[in-house]
Amino acid sequence: MKDGYLVGFGEVMLRLCPPERKRFAQALPGQLEATFGGGEANVCASLAMLGAKSRYLTALPENPVSAAFAAQLRGLKVDVDHILYTKSGRMGVYYAEHGAAQRGSNVVYDRENSVISLLGPEAYDFPSMLANASHLHITGITPSLSEKAYLTTLELVKYASSQGINISCDLNFRKKLWKWRPGTAPRELAAECMGKIVPYVNWIICNEEDASDVFGIASESSSIEEGKIDAEGYCGVARRLLERFPKAEYVAITLRESYSANHNNWGAMLYSRAEGKAFFAPNDANDEYHPYEIRNIVDRFGGGDSFGAGLIYALHSEEYRDPATAIRFAAAASCLKHTIHGDYNYVSLAEVVNLMNGSGSGRVMR
Questions:
Q1: How far is residue 255's CA from residue 331's CA, in Å, rounded to a whole number?
Q2: Following CA atoms 7, 353, 252, 95 in sequence, which dihedral angle do they give, to the nearest 10 degrees?
Q3: Concatenated DSSP letters for 309-356?
Q4: In a domain, 128, yes or no
Q5: Does 34 reside within a domain?
Q6: Residue 314 counted as domain residue
Q7: How many CB atoms within 10 Å of residue 273?
């Protein structure tokens, strides 16, 4: 693993879920399960649990809830010493209702006027935040919150790029967000803003829909609505992204086929500019793409973030950094996340390597 911190910047929220896949109407009034979650925080937590030096950057109100979050990440060995605290403001909240069978999951956001959405780039000390950093990870979620959060993200990647820091970006389009400019549709605003951020990025990460939603670059041979994925069709998506963004070295795309809320096929592709080809994972005995068939999903929230963390870890390592191995590692890490409750991927390096190498029976380890 290379020296230097693997850093993530973005919003973290309090996550509130009805227990046992109940609906909100069944659980309330009553108890909700409280955890924390947010794309970039999830990545930093996963990186730390894999054994990397990770640092999480955000802005939070100075109160006991924020302190509890920081203590949790610190307990996972994430550096939280550069979090910006303010005397006023709030932490965002998201309510997550888990789906089952043919009923999909649902998310309700309550994140208006969160601290990170109210602060512009002038509030942050970028040199201190990125001191001893070798990598910065961002997503398309934070700039979707407000114009100030967008400008902060843009200035942060500009500074990181000027310092030679490697940058990854998960496009992470959220249609319920990107509403801070009245009269501009979410996809139009996302295209404009991410079109100014992504030119500074080395590694582009997205799911099977994000490139289409943000940049209008789609795989014509796939039908997301029907759960049908033509993996090879995403090679063209990756090539078009690399043509548009000449700094980018890799495009990674997760490939989810959703048969129900509990049953998904899961795999991924990594396209390398240097090698001019795509690498898929997982593969069968004939080295053909054959996705993980995940039944009885425990929690799919954070699945894409666990993939991003796995990819960042692998590409910064000595042992797993070649593209064919890196995508196998990332796909395995994110497959395991579907078995874990909450946003964080509580798996070890050994568990990821075991699955990557074919040990996926779920047998008791004694």
A1: 10
A2: -60
A3: HHHHHHHTSSSS-SHHHHHHHHHHHHHHHTTSSSSS----HHHHHHHH
A4: yes
A5: no
A6: yes
A7: 16
Which range marks the domain in which residue 338 is found?
A: 5-12+39-90+116-356
Tokens 């796909």 correspond to 331
**H/E run at residue 128:** helix 126-129
Both tokens of 62, joined, read 């100075």
Token reading at 145:
């919150």
Nearest to 142, CA basis, from 104, 197, 62, 90: 197
Which helix (H) or strand (E) segment is 92 a member of?
strand 92-97
Burial class (CB in 10 A: 0-12, 13-18, 19+), 42: buried
Residue 346: exposure state from Cβ atoms within 10 A (0-12, 13-18, ≥19): middle
> Within a domain: residue 361?
no
CB 299 within 8 A of CB 136: no
Residue 2: pLDDT band with limits 50, 70, 90: low
What is the phi-psi region of residue 10: left when phi exceeds 0, alpha when psi lies from -120 to 50, beta otherwise? left
pLDDT tens-digit profile of 123-149? 999 999 999 999 999 999 999 999 999
Euclidean distance between CA atoms 18 and 97, whole angstroms: 6
Q: How far is CA 256 from CA 54, 208, 332, 351, in A?
A: 27, 7, 13, 22
pLDDT digits (tens, 9 = 90+) for 207-239: 888 888 999 988 766 554 555 567 778 898 999
Helix (H) / strand (E) element for 79: namely: strand 78-79
CATH of residue 230's domain is 3.40.1190.20
If residue 270 lies in a helix (H) or strand (E), which one and from where to where? strand 264-272
Tokens of 213: 């939603």
What pTM does this model have? Answer: 0.93
Who's near 183: CB < 8 A, 6+ residues apart? none
Find the helix or strand (DSSP H, E) in which 205 lies: strand 203-206
Q: Tell me the pLDDT tens digit for each residue of 290-318.
A: 999 999 899 888 889 999 999 999 999 99
Distance (Å) of CA 315 to CA 10, 230, 254, 322, 330: 22, 25, 16, 7, 10
Domain tally for the chain?
1
